[in-house]
Every structure is written in structure tokens, then in C-alpha cells.
Amino acid sequence: MNISFDFWIWIGALLSLCIFSFLYKDNPFYKFAEHLFVGVTNGYFLTFTVHRVLVPNLFKPLFEGKLWLIISFIVGALYVARFIPKVSWLVRIPIAITIGYYTGASIPAVIQTDIIRQIQGTILTPQNFQAWHAGTMGVVWSIILFIGVLCTLSYFYFSKEHKGVLGVTSKIGIIFIMIGFGAAFGYTVMARISLLIGRLQFLLGDWLGIIQ
Fold first, then answer.
1. What residues contact 61, with CB distance under 8 A and at least 6 apart?
2. What's the rounded Cα separation, in Å, for the pair 13 and 36?
3. Distance between CA atoms of 27 and 25, rounded to whole angstroms?
4. How far, rounded to the nearest angstrom, does the alpha carbon of residue 61 sit from its chain's CA centroid?
5. pLDDT per residue over 100-141, tens digit each?
6. Which residues contact 20 (CB under 8 A, 6 or more apart)?
7. How many helices (H) and strands (E) does the chain have?
């Protein structure tokens, strides 16, 4: 065992053990590490926002004569009203503007990327249905994908009651949706497992020197 005596490695190792202590039960060590992480993260993002967002995009242009940006400054400053009880209702203004803007900007993007492009990728690729190009199994998977896309879209068609053919396709669509959710959940679990493996490698390698 070759334990490293690097100061920052020890800090990282001790904080990691504090987080892992939650596996036993909630305790002051875990709470300390949790609060430290949240505080450091918020401090970093606050500093990043000031120096990389507000200064170059707001304050600097204001001093250069772009006075119309003062409207953005006033609207953004209304977020602080949340901490003043008498005028806390003013915080609804920037929240409403932010939600409205990003909703309007995201809806066309989501439709274009998650719906139109998926349909185009399914329909406008005839070579995927040709055995000489995609192979036998490639054609099979292309047909399954084609059916899955149509059935999934039929599930979200609410202008007609899901009976008859539409009822059958919508039920098949639910199966494909559940498969998609399962794959997404599995990916999330694997991502968390990879984080755990990385932390264990740090503790057993960089800190204790048991593994190389």
C-alpha cells in the first residue's frame, strides 16, 4: 500500500468518504460534504455568470453606449425582489419572460429535432430497407423501427378515441415508449455506476495506491 500524502488528494478522499458515509445513515459528515459541495458549486456558477455572462454581454456594452440593454438589466434585477417581502411579486415578471421566451424557442427546436427529423430518418432512407445495402437483419430492424415510429406517433394522436386500428397501434406504441424509457433509465444507471467506479479508482489508486 503506497498512500499518497498530497494535500488535495487527501481532501478529495476524505470528502468522498463523507459522502459514502450516507450509505450507513444520515450523519454530520455527509451533511458537511453535501453543504460544501452545494456552496462551492453555487459560488463557482455565480462567479462564472458575473465574469463570463453579465460583464461581456451586459455591463461592458452598457458602458460602450448600448443603453437599450438597461431594460434587460432592470428585468434581471427584479429577481432580487424575491428577497423583499413587500415587492416579492415583482419576481413573477422576469420568470414569466424567461419561461415564455425559452418555451417559444424550444418548441420549434424540439419539433424539428425530435419529430420531423425522426420521421425523415425513418421514411427518407429507402436504402435501409434494401437487403443488398443493409443486410437481412438491417432490413428487419429498419421495419421494426418504422413500425415503432408510426405506432408511437399514433399513441400521441388524441383527436380520435383510441379504438379499433388506432387502439391497437397506440398499445404497440406504448410498448416502444416503455422500451425507450427503460433504455434511458439503464443509461442513467450505467452513468451513475461509472461515477462510482471512478471514485473507487481514485480512492484505491490515487489515495491508497492499492491499484495502478
1. 69
2. 14
3. 6
4. 31
5. 999 999 999 988 888 788 777 766 666 666 666 667 787 788
6. none
7. 9, 0
